[in-house]
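Collaboration report, partner site 2.

Our partner group contributed sequences for two proteins of shared interest, and the home lab folded both. The records are reproduced in the order in which they were received, starting with the first partner submission.
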Amino acid sequence: MEKITQPVFPKTTEIHYNDPMKIPFAKGLGSHLAWAVLPLGGAVWSFRAEAWGVSAALLVAAAAYSLFMLYFFRDPERVPPEDPALVVAGADGWVRSVEDIDETTYLCQPTVRISIYLTPWDVHVNRSPIQGAVTRLDYSPGRHVLTRNPQSSEVNEHSSILIEGDVPCLVRQIVGPLVRRVVAWLDEGQALARGERIGMMKFGSRLDVYLPRDRVEVVCRRGDRTTAGVTPIARLRKDL
């Protein structure tokens, strides 16, 4: 793949951390909250029919659903570390594995793959591990096997985001048995700051980050807790 010239970042691409006007919820919350109208409508109908127990149960269901959606779609502000040589985690969760992989589709070279497993209780907004430009966006349909399975990276439904910066970085959003949708809020050619929001995976999943094996030093290990846009997972080697 032809090397992309490092983009110039205009002010419009800067991240405004801790912006008091920023609504702390991810895109798509409204459409999911709209489903609460169904049990609310049922509660009103039951109330008019004097079915008090049914009405109360439906109100509780609507409230519980709405509260879970608010919790799941939370999108707190994040500030990446100052050291520009650090590659940051793309997702909240736990480092499931750190493996050497020959990536033959996008990076076409030996890579290290850092896999982060998300539970339904983690923040599911994903962030860019590096500063760079989006050079390729792909979607691959597939299966929905457990993301703990090493083969899920290839056989499960997933999206692939290739970012070219000081090093190329492949980010892969992978669905699991409960996850039915991954979303990338990106366009090809878009410039990204390190730690900038890139998309979301809904209701538990896995995010893989591929980096050139000989260009980085891994600074995380299996079992580490990660915070998207904040936790270092690798460092660019300065001896190259």
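Second partner submission, folded after the first:
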Amino acid sequence: MATFDRGPDANGFGFWMDQLDTSGSILDVARSMFVAPEGQDLYGGLDTGSLVDKVYNNLLDRDPGQEGRDYWIDALDKGHVSRGFFVEAVINGAEANDTEQGQEDTELIAEKTEVAEYFVNRGLNDTDKAHSILEQVEAGESVEAVKAGLDSSTSQPSSSQGDVSTDNGSSSMGGDTISTALPSLPPSQGGSGPAEVRNGTDAGDNIDADQSGAVLSGNAGEDRFLFSDAATSQEVTIDDFEDGDQLFFGGGFQEGGVGIQNVNLDDDAMTVSVAGTTVNLENLPEADNVPIVSPSSFESAFLDALAFA
């Protein structure tokens, strides 16, 4: 929806979901969409300023403010944000912006996403209509009115065709979870998975992260770092957090209390804080150290990375 300035056609959506299942990284898919022929038709050959203007108008239906435009031009030119990830970065920035403009931008993105999901879940492939429904939302039509217009102009696919479903464990457009190779929760958290270990092995592990002052490594596999003591202040460093890994907070942690700090985009590091627990993430994959300034943008870069009991 965001990259191509239209709702996803059912066939294309299925293709990109297959790519996501294969790569396991929404960042890889975002880059692939940007360099695809349709993405290049929209953005190929644009200078940095024109790219910023184009993405803002396609996504937010407005020109960027001068301060925001200068910020993104600088970030793109210095390589802090790649062109392939820029659309996602603008979405993350809108979600983190608590000004009135930021709230309006976030609401528009949510409304466009809702009608795009409705379109693809009807199994439709008319790309002109996929574009026009977003224009209707931008023009001020309500989501329900746009949906009603789709209902009146199209027929529901037969049961043999079926809806385009994301119940196979892959990510939905709304940011739901993707399938991972994380082990099941350990018995200490009421699960039947492997018991907690003090540091990672060559397999996917449940790692006891209540080790204040320690530097932890997941090593190979997809690892869950478990924090169970919300009553004690502690600081832990994880030196190889990557896509597929997870920070799991149990033992009284509250889901709404997540803080994100990512001051220097050049240092491949950031900090996640929940209650009295501080988690320093170091040696992040370069592509993932993008403008992560909120829990939602953290989840966009590292899918399924935050979980609470």
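Feedback sent to the partner group on the second submission included the following. The first strand starts at residue 206 and ends at 208. The CA atoms of residues 183 and 193 lie 6 Å apart.
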